[in-house]
TrEMBL record:
Compositionally biased region (Basic residues): 1-10
GO molecular function: U3 snoRNA binding
Keyword Ribonucleoprotein part of the UniProt annotation: yes
Entry protein name: U3 snoRNP-associated protein-like EMB2271
GO cellular component: small-subunit processome
Keyword list, A-Z: Nucleus, Repeat, Ribonucleoprotein, RNA-binding, rRNA processing, WD repeat
Source organism of this protein record: Clitoria ternatea
Protein localization: Nucleus, Nucleolus
InterPro entries: Rrp9-like (IPR039241), WD40/YVTN_repeat-like_dom_sf (IPR015943), WD40_PAC1 (IPR020472), WD40_repeat_CS (IPR019775), WD40_repeat_dom_sf (IPR036322), WD40_rpt (IPR001680)
Translocase listed as a keyword: no
Length: 494
């Protein structure tokens, strides 16, 4: 019976018709079909497009060309240095050219190690501030400056203020160019959402800004709960990212990428891809407002907030480290390198952290203490707290509970031991961060009237930029009418 069924199945008319249809010859294959479409013109245009695409430079070819240009420049610099040492121009033989290339290779390796944070430049001990040259005004604002940032080559700077003014200025000439906000209809076409809660119109109040490593994009955030993206070449508005439920208080680009991190009063960190204009992810962990954010080359984000914690998010591993501070609120924080952190608190102290420890390894108290009796305190390294932390000056002559002594800004010169901090007590202080001894030593105390709401070092450590205002960055709980709203620059000598 099974054989009969198999035989009957093999003669099933359904399969027979199917096979017959497959074997049916198509007699119309050779017939021409009339059409208005010109086949030769199509393939000719396709070949032309293919030739144009082949002529376009690919990403790999562009990187190779940039690397070759950079290598040629480094070789020219090495050649000029050698000619300067020899005093005359000489022709090189193969041995000298090989030695020069080895020096170039060593220089490139050193630069790469410094960029990756493996090597730290010891420049703090060599930094000098001229007595005659203090801070000078570089750009003026009508309202308090809330944030400053520098381009990767230190040639341009950016600043924002409470009245929504965003300015771009040249570091050398001081020439300023203002960013113009587009109309509401244009902003809505770029992604802006309607005001929430009781607000009747969008606020232009800017709290933070950050510039990408390639210098193409500028990101700003403020009270309107949006992250705005600008083109630095045309100063035009490109995109508005909605999503935060509170003011955007801090922004930072990941070095070498178009990846942007935004921190907000809604206690979250959001990740954006500026190149693709897309939202990527949201990070949770803080129990109160996030006030500060920083990121290096690794996909790790450092945040500080009013919940007395500083948190290090490892985005790729989907984990985080929580660091607890003794202060009631951490006002600011930044990376020193991949293993060390620096923060400033509202009790006037500066904390040095190690990523392997959840508590500060060193606390510098009264970093910007007010002089009550107009007495200048002396730094006493011998005065130690029971936990080994340094207590600055004579405590009975100072007080740090005032808003004027809150450490509102800290920054570190990239891949170096040089740091700076600012407050509202009338000065910016430079520090040397000692990694081996795990302490912070004072270098210079430079007068600057007003609330120092933001600081930025040049990558070359040739100058320091400060954003100054008559009021603190995030509120109006203090005011100094003598201060000049704007951006000030401090030249440094190495």
């Amino acid at each position: 019976m099974p054989n009969k069924n198999r035989k009957k199945k093999s003669h099933d008319p359904f399969f027979a018709d199917d096979n017959r249809k497959r074997r049916k010859p198509n007699h119309d294959d050779d017939a021409e079909i009339e059409s208005d479409f010109e086949e030769d013109e199509f393939f000719a245009s396709a070949d032309a497009d293919a030739d144009e695409e082949s002529e376009e430079e690919t990403g790999a070819e562009a990187r190779k060309r940039i690397a070759q240009d950079y290598l040629r420049k480094v070789r020219e610099i090495a050649q000029k240095e050698k000619e300067r040492e020899d005093g005359e121009e000489v022709e090189e033989d193969d041995d000298e050219e090989g030695a020069r290339d080895s020096l170039v290779a060593q220089k490139l390796i050193k630069e790469q190690q410094e960029e990756s944070g493996r090597v730290r430049r010891a420049i703090a001990s060599r930094v000098k501030v001229s007595g005659d040259e203090g801070f000078r005004v570089l750009a003026k604002h009508r309202c308090s400056v809330t944030s400053v940032a520098l381009s990767e080559d230190d040639s341009k700077g950016f600043s924002a203020s409470k009245d929504g003014v965003i300015m771009q200025w040249d570091v050398n000439s001081g020439q300023c160019e203002r960013y113009k906000w587009p109309s509401d209809s244009v902003l809505k076409s770029h992604g802006l959402k309607d005001p929430q809660a009781s607000a009747t119109k969008q606020s232009k109040h800017v709290l933070s800004l950050s510039v990408s490593s390639d210098g193409r994009y500028l990101a700003t955030g403020g009270l309107d709960r949006h992250v705005h993206i600008w083109d630095t070449r045309t100063r035009e508005h490109l995109q508005a990212f909605p999503g935060h439920r509170g003011p955007v208080s801090c922004l930072t680009f990941r070095q070498g990428t178009s990846e942007l991190f935004s921190g907000s009063f809604d206690r979250t960190v959001k990740i954006w891809n500026v190149e693709d204009r897309t939202y990527m992810n949201t990070l949770f962990g803080h129990q109160s407002e996030i006030l500060s954010i920083d990121c290096l080359r690794k996909e790790r984000v450092l945040t500080a907030g009013r919940d007395r914690s500083m948190q290090l998010f490892k985005v790729h591993e989907e984990s985080r480290l929580v660091f607890r501070a003794p202060a009631s609120s951490l006002e600011c924080g930044c990376f020193i390198n991949n293993d060390e952190l620096l923060s400033g608190s509202d009790d006037g102290s500066i904390e040095l952290w190690d990523v392997m420890r959840k508590k500060p390894v060193y606390i510098l108290r009264n970093a910007h203490a007010l002089l009550v009796d107009n007495m200048k305190s002396d730094q006493k390294d011998s005065e130690k707290l029971p936990n080994g932390n340094l207590e600055n000056g004579y405590h009975q002559n100072h007080h740090s509970s005032s808003v004027f002594s809150w450490v509102s800004a800290v920054t570190v010169c990239r891949n170096s031991d040089l740091a700076a901090s600012g407050a509202g007590n009338g000065s910016v202080r430079l520090w040397a961060v000692e990694s081996e001894t795990k302490d912070i030593k004072p270098l210079h105390d430079v007068p600057l009237v007003g609330f120092v709401n933001s600081l930025a070092f040049a990558k070359s450590a040739e100058f320091l930029v400060a954003g100054v205002g008559q009021e603190p960055r995030l509120g109006r709980w203090g005011r100094n009418a003598e201060a000049r709203n704007g951006v000030s620059i401090l030249p440094l000598q190495l």
